[in-house]
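[job 4417] fold queue: 2 targets
>>> target A
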Amino acid sequence: MNTVSIRELRNSGGEVIARVAGGETLLVTRDGEPVARVTPLPRRPASAEVLQERRRCLPRVDADTLQADIDDVLDPAL
């Protein structure tokens, strides 16, 4: 886990928060000793309506074509 000092957090708070928003968890230290952990918040689940809309935007997949593509890639001896 990466660390950040309290001084760095104070002086570059926006950059530190951007790192956390990007998924990084940081250990905050004071005089080299850990005092806190900053972690990203869990993502909110999408509503059923949002998921249905996303699904509508996906390309249609033909099961036979998909199986043929998989068969072309995988060794049939496996």
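>>> target B
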Amino acid sequence: MDIDAFIAVHQPQWDRLDQLAKRGRLSAAETDEMLVLYQRASTHLSMIQAAEPDSPVAAQLSARIGRARTHLTGAGENPLTASANFFVQTLPAAFYRLRWLTLIVAAAFIVISVAAGYWAYHHPQLDLIMPEQARQAYAEEDFVNYYSEHPSSSFASQVWTNNAWIAAQCVAFGVTGIWPAAILGINAGSIGIAGGVMHEQGAAADFWLNLLPHGLMEMTAIFVAGAAGLRIFWAWVAPGQRRRLTALTEEARSLITVALGLVVVLLISGIVEGFVTPAPWPDWVRIGIGAAVLGGYWAYALTLGRRAAEAGVTGDLGSYDAGSHELTA
């Protein structure tokens, strides 16, 4: 794209937008005009940043758009409106972008878990690793009692905090590539070995009936967190046509959105683990609740997320909130 020609064509519109933004009061017609110019200028800014991210014109235009946005929205966006936009557009769009990578992470996790479980079940010297008496106590008492030995509310809070911390680490340290992979691998191995021991002791039903109600959503949330972390890592490794720092910054901003959203998702799975998993209800009810929660997540991510993605939402902050590049000498 010829930046100079692009500027020459659209400069009058930007000047008019700035002129309207500096006025104290606008008529209804002028407000409509300003809104149209604001939308056009936002599109122009995206095109300029795609062609020349560090262009001083982009910084100047971003400032003009910022003034116009402040004029249109007053002191700031209504908190209720901002919250609605976050949960209806920004968050589902971020989840939607990760859908395929989430499934890939899930598949790798399952493979590692099955391999670890098979190893534990068939290991010829398992007694040297975990004595028979300890395995029997784990299968008959410890595993099931883990979900009911503490009050439901405190247990739900504990698992929520623990899982949210794991998810946050996957995202925050995702740039390393190693950290999320290590966390996922360790957790996959732990679950696999636990399952192998439970099967070896003839307690397979107890394992699955106490894992599935909350585990369906809980583990999916961890998969999403791992996918988010690995996506940040990949933005650093293969930034495409963007500068490496620009790609890393954009992906990190949008995927921090994922970390915030997962706090809510893990709160829901924590409530299920604290109140549904140990409940004396029929197995199909407990597993059905867990499956419904998981189905709700995917419906949210795929339906609202696809709609938001088609509208151009990526989960990143807008140009005004995120700021723009500034050249320094």
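[job 4417] complete. Note on B: The chain has two domains: 3-76, 91-310.
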